[in-house]
Amino acid sequence: MCWLFPGKLIKIDTVCPDCGESISVEMRDGDVLSCEPEEAVSHNNGPSNRSWADR
Prior knowledge:
This protein is mainly beta. Helices cover 0% and strands 36% of the residues. The chain has one domain (1-40). The chain has no helices and three strands.
């Protein structure tokens, strides 16, 4: 998403495909700013301009 909306706050509201619980994630420039519930697990299969060690 960061390459589509640089500098913008992105909010994603979805549901868990396993249990149906609501999930809300806010991101900016590839960084996750908030996630509800906090224990939610996700996978990002997109390009990254930083390595995991730089986060």
